[in-house]
Amino acid sequence: MEDWTPENNEADTYDQKFSMEGGLAGSVNTVSVKLMEQAGIGNTIRVAERMGIRSDLPRVPSLALGTASISVMEMVNAYAAFANHGKHVSPIYITAITDRNGVLLERMTNSQAPVSALSKETSAMMLHMLRRVVNEGTGAGLRTKFGLTNDIAGKTGTTQSNTDGWFIAITPRLVVGCWVGADDPRLHFKSTALGQGAATALPVIGRFIQQMNKDQSFASLSNARFESLSAAQMKKLDCELSKEDRTFLDRLFNRKKGIKQTEFKEGRDDADDKAEAREDRQEARQEKKQAKKDRRARRERRKRDRDQP
User: Fold this and answer.
1) End-to-end C-alpha distance for the chain, whole angstroms
2) The pLDDT value given to residue 190
3) What is the pLDDT of residue 270?
4) Which residues, 6+ apart, have CB-to-CB distance to 58 below 8 Å?
């Protein structure tokens, strides 16, 4: 793409090769763009939509770096699919109504059936990689600064010119998110050190989880643990986060690679995109048909229960 080149926050990242896990843990922009280039922008948008993103997603390479305007609710809802074995569940805002004495008047349930956004295996591997973001990547402040020992996966985010700082935290039973920024993008931090999500949004989440851990009524959330990956899944991720990508002479003379400009090319052509879109529509129709059957079965069970003496 002409007149656009993704850059990383750290200059030494251009002299390294990253695994996908390493690129995610270190928030390496060039890795994100390269991954979307291979997967295809259309495929990326479709997965995001299946995970619950409803905002407009521009079909441009910079989408990989978060240029779309998305609400906190959408982001949290999408990340919840990772903790929900790849299933997207539409959120409900009111779960119950009680009177002033705490007597339950009505309990609300979600009438929409979960939608498959990712395979169970993919969501489990994504959780594992996002846990490394917290354990040794850009989200490590939850461990080092706030002393949290919970099972936590997460992701920091920082938009262009340090306008927005993001952090999404995933635990086995709770997903929370924070955005720090201003309505006017002209208002932003002067440096990445001050404006990055790890410095602005992450501390809010860190203090929130600290308070949750102190309250014994939330012990079931604080003590929840993620499922372990299978041996086959661990084998797929058995590689270093990064390694140096310089020759002996480069290191000897301290030669840096710097930014490399290449043309952005989508990994799949339109025919592949259209075929996958047809598969997505067929899967959605099947899930809708199954949900209808489930509702009919529930109505029949309730009717039988009422008819019994």
Assistant:
1) 72
2) 87
3) 47
4) 67, 68
Buried-state track 39-70, b at ≥16 Cβ within 10 A, e below 16: ebbbbbbbbbbbbbbeeebeeebbbbbbebeb
What's the pLDDT score for residue 280? 65
**pLDDT greater than 50 at residue 71:** yes
If one looks up domain 11-246+257-307 in CATH, what number appears?
A: 3.40.710.10
HSE (CB half, 13 Å, CA atoms) of 1? 14
Question: The pTM is what?
Answer: 0.77
pLDDT at residue 145 is higher than 50: yes
Strand partners, 177: 168
Place of tokens 């600290």: 210
Q: Quick one: what percent of the chain has pLDDT higher than 90? A: 53
The domains of the chain are located at: 11-246+257-307
Q: Report d(CA 217, CA 81) in Å as an integer.
A: 25
What DSSP string runs through 48-105? HHHTT--S---SSGGGGGT-S---HHHHHHHHHHHHTTTEE----S--EEE-TT--EE
Q: Which two tokens stand for residue 254?
A: 């301290």
* Helix, strand, coil percentages for the chain (3-state, nearest 5): 50, 10, 40
For the CA atoms of 264, 266, 267, 270, what is the dihedral angle to 10 degrees?
A: -160
Better pLDDT: 65 or 274: 65
